[in-house]
Amino acid sequence: MTDDPAADEVLPAGNAAELASARLTLLASARRQVDIRVPRLDDALYASAEDMAELRRIATAGRGAQIRLLLGDPGTALRDGHRLILLMQRLPSVIQVRMPVDEVDLGNPSACLLTDAGGYLFQPDAERPQGRAARIDRPGCAPLRQQFDEMWERAERARMLQPLDL
Question: Against a cut of 0.70, is the pTM above it?
């Protein structure tokens, strides 16, 4: 801990291990809402037992619980049986998945995690294990939230991920 409380809110995010730790810290600090944007889900993203426990906690937090996932390649996540997709199929009213269709969004290589506590993790290039993160930084989170909301509005529901009710 330092004497500056704001300095304690910045999270290291310069390599894969720090990114994983920052993701878990942010998920643990979220109360009821999380927004996630990733071009592609793989086993290293949101698939650990700890990540899944936090996502399940958020999704079952009661009234107002919401997880929005903007996913560039939902087909691959479905074929690979990613754990987050399986959770989404169990809780489709709480975990919503959309895929970008607009050219400007399809060309965006970045990834982010935004929490209702004002925290964020931002990677300018999702393929590179480096970025910036803060547990609580509402001014830093605001432009990322605006960009996410705009992309969300332009995106289409990922219908291929919907469970079939036969």
Answer: yes
